Amino acid sequence: MAAPAAGPVFWRRLLGLLPGRPGLAALLGRLSDRLGRSRERRRRRSPWLLLAPLLSPTVPQVTSPPCCLCPEGVHRFQWIRNLVPEFGVSSSHVRVLSSPAEFFELMKGQIKIAKRRVVMASLYLGTGPLEQELVDCLESSLEKSLQAKFPSDLKVSILLDFTRGSRGRKNSRTMLLPLLQRFPERVRVSLFHTPNLRGLLRLLIPERFNETIGLQHIKVYLFDNNVILSGANLSDSYFTNRQDRYVFLQDCAEIADFFTELVDAVGDVSLQLQGDDTVEVVDGMVHPYKGDRAAYCRAANKRVMDVIHSARARQQMLHAQTFHSDSLLSQEDAAAAGDRRPAPDTWIYPLIQMKPFEIQIDEIVTETLLTEAERGAKVFLTTGYFNLTQAYMDLVLGTRAEYQILLASPEVNGFFGAKGVAGAIPAAYVHIERQFYSEVCSLGQQDRVQLQEYWRRGWTFHAKGLWLYLAGSSLPCLTLIGSPNFGYRSVHRDLEAQIAIVTESRSLQQQLHQEQEQLYLRSGVVTSATFEQPGRQVKLWVKMVTPLIKNFF
Predict the structure, then answer these.
(1) Is 75 noted as a catalytic residue in this protein?
(2) Predicted pLDDT of residue 382
(3) Which of these, 366, 377, 424, 487, could form a disulfide with 387 (CB 3.0-4.6 Å)?
(4) Which of 136, 144, 224, 378 is labelled catalytic?
(5) Do residues 348 and 217 share a domain?
(6) DSSP 8-state class, residue 282
(7) Both 266 and 377 in a single domain?
(8) Would you call 22 exposed, middle or buried from its count of C-beta atoms within 10 A (0-12, 13-18, 19+)?
(9) Are 463 and 513 in a shared domain?
């Protein structure tokens, strides 16, 4: 039922309102999550789920004193700023991209004009000619920064996953070594290694399969004060024919500073690539797989949470100084001094999920959004890998809003046609999809919860996120965009980051609506006939193995 899910969320939010108590809020949140999960296991698939919309209590709105940064229209989402920093921006600084080619060309263009910093976090960097083109752009910009009439202090920081970035003889590391060797003082390459892959497990699990234990999955691309948030990796298919989502935040210094600090923090707890292709830990840091696991995770938690807390404090102070202080310059004086910014009509909230480090912000916010979506609201949710956690699944099935869930058809799944065991992964997703669809039907929810499969000849599908349309609205007021897939891996194993964009700008809402429509237009509605099509028959061994391995992909 939705009621047990709403209770823990309500406690977390109430406690989050108490100033100076974020640690206590997080602790109570974790305790209530565990309590909720134990209740969930006991009831599992109860027929009472049908009554969830009637039984779940309404969570009171968290309100704030009205001010020009807090317009009435976005009050319902301002509770998020009790967990993370809130960045108010003008919608004119936000642009939604639509294609891999646009994403690739924008990145190259931004690298070429960067003067101060380039920060790139991804799962891996591919080894083909397009990836080499990207590396060449970095090299050219670094070279130009040294030879310019007025040399700039351009620094490049790249964060990748250790296991994925080390796969094969030619890999992400070998692609970046020339940069490290030529510009050792200006280039940093950090390789995150999950603390859960250690000891005998690390010795026994072969390459590629070791990536199932946990990864660095954040995708952030940053150039001076411009930021791209996406789910796309730095690989040729993501530049050509692998559909994802991308948002470009232009001239957003505070957001760029936050993500620079976040990548630096994860980089500090990662292994540092050296010019001879060896790796070292940062001085004073616990080794991720040789050192004490608990000590490493505590240090990583502190390092990341310090970034979140300090950014949140900075934004609160900026908010107070700008909108609630009589002792500082008036807005007219600030305008005369050339410091007048457009009034914000859009709010950005960075949502971080790093369960190995006991950081669960994205999970808390996503669960709350799904819990509070009221009757008449529409949620468009998309994932390249349909494997929802039990908590998300129960909220979709047990709450009031309408859902349209977009997922990859087997032919556009990234694992389609793969060799060996990986080739069976699309069939496993079909099995999970069919189980979920059967449950929707058994609960009589077909009119409220609809599955749609994306298909495009010659393409694969990797888009993830959601769009929220309030009751009676034809445009979305909120979207989540970034790296999480809403599955077990995203919640429990990997390092993830996305942003919640809340906007009252009709122009930006139309951009988001058009993005959603373009993706869903290439899809077909799933019915019982879908699973009778040729190629949809799942082998018995796949059905038997899927429950055992679904938490690893």
Answers:
(1) no
(2) 97
(3) 487
(4) 224
(5) no
(6) P
(7) no
(8) middle
(9) yes
- What does the block give as tokens for 551? 């938490």
Q: Is there a single domain that holds both residue 277 and residue 373?
A: no
Q: What is the pLDDT of residue 343?
A: 82
Q: Which domain holds residue 163?
A: 91-308
Residue of 217, 319, 462, 513 marked active site = 217
Catalytic residue flag (residue 319)? no
pLDDT of residue 342: 72
For residue 287, the 8-state DSSP code is P
Same domain, 258 and 352: no
- Report the pLDDT value the prediction gives residue 553, as an integer from 0 to 100: 75
Count of all residues that appear for the chain in the document: 553
pLDDT for 446 equals 94
Type of residue numbered 56: S
Whether residue 299 sits in one domain with residue 372: no
In a domain, 32, yes or no: no
Q: What is the pLDDT of residues 374-414, one digit of tens each?
A: 999 999 999 999 999 999 999 999 999 999 999 999 989 86
pLDDT attached to residue 203: 94
Half-sphere exposure of 247 (CA within 13 A, CB side): 26
- Is 420:207 a contact under the CB 8 Å cutoff? no
Question: Residue 76 falls within a domain, yes or no?
Answer: no
Q: Name the burial class of residue 127, with classes exposed (0-12), middle (13-18) and buried (19+) by CB atoms within 10 angstroms of its CB.
A: middle
CB 134 within 8 A of CB 128: no
Domain count, the chain: 2
- pLDDT tens per residue, range 94-117: 999 999 999 999 999 999 999 999
Catalytic residue among 219, 431, 462, 513: 219
Angstrom CA distances, 452 to 169, 381, 438, 543, stand at 39, 10, 14, 22
pTM equals 0.85
Q: Give 299-350 pLDDT, tens digit per residue.
A: 999 999 999 999 999 999 887 777 665 544 444 554 444 555 678 999 999 9
Annotation says 287 is catalytic = no
280, 369: one domain: no
